């Protein structure tokens, strides 16, 4: 196959040429956006409008003035793809009510009992034609358990202290994205309800966030299959948690909220989990060292700050925006796929950052899914955010095996036969490739005349190798052309007056009889194991003796006064054929010679000159493109 000629036909599930909403720059600063309102209620609404611009069927409603019941809301928001909104205790916050109408909410899930979110709020929602489901308990711990039952514990649980909020705020979006509930626990021992809950449920994994004093060993050891994620303070634990679940987090966008108060981070957990993003907590308006160090190590396209400037200032936002690492180089990708198989480009590429370290970042390709129908090497481009260059994907589509060639061999009765270690396969691109093959035997001796068949196994292929072995009696070979006998005798070490037997020539794989004034090929029919035969520059009348030489791969018949190719039309294993400088007019017998990579046909003219004669090479059109060497054009 011509190496630089590419044919690539593919059926796309979808091809998307994605236009980015900004001009990428190799040194562009991370964009900083603020999601804010004039109070915590308005900030929650701003988060809802950002994450659910087209509305939502469900919403989570939590008390906006204190944290205990609300901390378990994040995973519930994930379950129902719902924003988290805040309300006062006695009455439904008017701005929140307006947002519920904009969202066209049908169901609201209230977190907490009547003492936290009153029956009046529930009645107001009823008047708005909204169905209410309440998750409540006698205390924050029971409320969290009831939410956990709704979310389900089949994937595991996250555990944090119920006496403070930063750890639960850190966990919120990650727990939500992983479909695991948050269980709030007392510092020294579990409640009786919690102990019963653990006995009643099979929990495959428990991820416990704690420092040195938040939770006792007694609490930790009661959870099955636990893993502790620690840190000196909530901010270090926040970063350690993100690092632990780094493979589940998309760092293209990060949400920033204060860890000194709960509402902003709580409402952010609902929107952050939608994009599998994390929440990073600041100590008020101060960037803790673990947070700054972590942000400086990551390539981040966008930072969303939750809350107004009185909570996190513009100068702090500007510092954060300049902190993430930038991309200075991209590692191009080389990949391969078998022909006729669906290919999905990798979702990430390796980049080198300004700090010299490498990282995997998302990439957007000009295609997202492709079925390959033609082998070859193809190039595609992709883009990554915050980088002005392109990443290149070199995709090699490998040809597949169409069939394993059947092997035909012949030995003389009583000889030993060694099985071939490789078998030829015809590939989908027309090429021939060798594969190692394993037979039931490696060497056998056959004393009985007959034809035997064997099967071989090729690792990685379902097709079986096939070998037909003919065991023949030895016999004298009669050569009608003494010049041919002389060539053969010289090859096998016999004088012209000596008899040549089949056993003398059965192992020959190559014979050069070029320019030997041969006119008759009788006797060559016994050379069944020949692979290479040179007969050019002779005066050949007919080629009948070649009919049975189906193992031939190379055949030279140039300048041999040939007029007809009918006798060789079955030699379709040939990869090299030279029949130039003859009198051949009909190339039809070559129609099925699809394995040819070299074919010479030039200077074939009629025996009787014909004015304006043009040879018809059309029978070879099927495989013309696969010919590496040729002396004619189509």
Task: Describe the secondary-structure layout.
Layout: E1 10-12, E2 31-35, H1 40-51, E3 58-63, H2 73-79, E4 84-87, H3 94-103, E5 107-111, H4 119-127, E6 131-135, H5 140-151, E7 157-161, H6 166-177, E8 182-185, H7 192-200, E9 206-209, H8 217-220, E10 226-229, H9 234-244, E11 253-258, H10 263-274, E12 278-282, H11 289-297, E13 302-306, H12 314-322, E14 327-330, E15 333-338, E16 342-343, E17 348-353, E18 358-362, E19 364-365, E20 370-372, E21 376-383, E22 391-398, E23 401-404, E24 407-412, E25 416-418, E26 422-427, E27 432-436, E28 438-439, E29 443-445, E30 450-457, E31 464-472, H13 482-492, H14 502-505, E32 510-512, E33 532-534, E34 554-556, E35 576-578, E36 598-600, E37 629-630
Helix pairs in contact: 1-10, 2-5, 2-6, 2-10, 6-9, 6-10, 9-11
């Amino acid at each position: 196959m011509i190496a630089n000629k590419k044919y690539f036909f593919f059926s796309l599930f979808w091809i998307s040429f994605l236009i980015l909403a900004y001009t990428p720059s190799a040194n562009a600063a991370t964009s900083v956006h603020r999601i804010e309102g004039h109070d915590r209620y308005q900030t929650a609404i701003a988060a809802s409008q950002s994450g659910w611009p087209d509305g939502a069927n469900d919403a989570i409603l939590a008390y906006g003035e204190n944290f205990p019941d609300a901390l378990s809301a994040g995973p519930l928001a994930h379950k129902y793809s719902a924003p988290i909104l805040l309300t006062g205790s006695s009455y439904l916050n008017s701005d929140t009510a307006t947002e519920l109408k904009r969202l066209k909410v049908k169901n609201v899930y209230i977190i907490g009992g009547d003492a936290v979110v009153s029956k009046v709020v529930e009645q107001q929602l009823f008047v708005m034609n909204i169905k209410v489901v309440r998750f409540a308990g006698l205390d924050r711990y029971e409320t969290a358990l009831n939410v956990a039952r709704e979310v389900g514990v089949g994937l595991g649980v996250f555990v944090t202290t119920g006496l403070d909020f930063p750890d639960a705020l850190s966990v919120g979006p990650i727990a939500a994205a992983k479909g695991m509930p948050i269980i709030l626990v007392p510092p020294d021992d579990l409640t009786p309800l919690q102990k019963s809950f653990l006995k009643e449920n099979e929990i495959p994994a428990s991820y416990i966030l704690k420092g040195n004093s938040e939770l006792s060993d007694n609490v930790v050891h009661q959870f099955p299959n636990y893993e502790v994620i620690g840190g000196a303070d909530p901010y270090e634990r926040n970063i350690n948690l993100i690092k632990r679940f780094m493979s589940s987090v998309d760092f293209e966008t990060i949400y920033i909220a204060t860890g000194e108060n709960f509402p902003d981070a709580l409402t952010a957990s609902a929107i952050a989990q939608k994009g599998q993003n994390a929440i990073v907590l600041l100590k008020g308006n101060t960037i803790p060292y673990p947070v700054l160090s972590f942000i400086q190590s990551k390539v981040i396209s966008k930072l969303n700050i939750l809350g107004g400037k009185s909570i996190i200032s513009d100068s702090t936002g500007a510092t954060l925006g300049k902190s993430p690492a930038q991309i200075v180089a991209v590692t191009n990708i080389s990949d391969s796929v078998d022909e006729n198989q669906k290919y999905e480009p990798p979702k990430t590429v390796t980049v080198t950052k300004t700090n010299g370290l490498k990282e995997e970042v998302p990439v957007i390709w000009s295609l997202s899914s492709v079925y390959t129908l033609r082998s070859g090497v193809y190039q595609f481009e992709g883009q990554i955010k915050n980088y002005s260059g392109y990443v290149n994907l070199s995709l090699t589509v490998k040809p597949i095996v169409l069939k394993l060639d059947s092997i035909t061999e012949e030995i003389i009765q009583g000889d030993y036969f060694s099985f071939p270690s490789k078998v030829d396969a015809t590939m989908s691109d027309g090429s021939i490739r060798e594969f190692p093959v394993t037979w039931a035997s490696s060497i056998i001796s056959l004393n009985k005349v007959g034809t035997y068949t064997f099967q071989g196994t090729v690792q990685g292929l379902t097709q079986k190798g096939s070998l037909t072995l003919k065991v023949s009696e030895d016999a004298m070979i009669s050569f009608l052309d003494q010049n041919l006998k002389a060539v053969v005798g010289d090859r096998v070490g016999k004088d012209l007056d000596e008899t040549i037997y089949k056993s003398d020539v059965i192992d020959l794989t190559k014979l050069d009889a070029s320019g030997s004034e041969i006119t008759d090929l009788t006797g060559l029919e016994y050379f069944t194991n020949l692979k290479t035969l040179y007969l050019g520059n002779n005066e050949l009348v007919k080629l009948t003796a070649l009919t049975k030489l189906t193992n031939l791969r190379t055949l030279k018949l140039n300048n041999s006064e040939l007029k007809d190719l009918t006798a060789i039309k079955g030699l379709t294993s040939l990869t090299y054929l030279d029949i130039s400088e003859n009198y051949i007019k009909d190339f039809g017998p070559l129609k099925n010679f699809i394995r040819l990579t070299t074919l010479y046909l030039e200077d074939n003219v009629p025996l009787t000159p014909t004015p304006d004669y043009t040879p018809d090479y059309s029978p070879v059109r099927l495989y013309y493109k696969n010919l590496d060497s040729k002396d004619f054009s189509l």
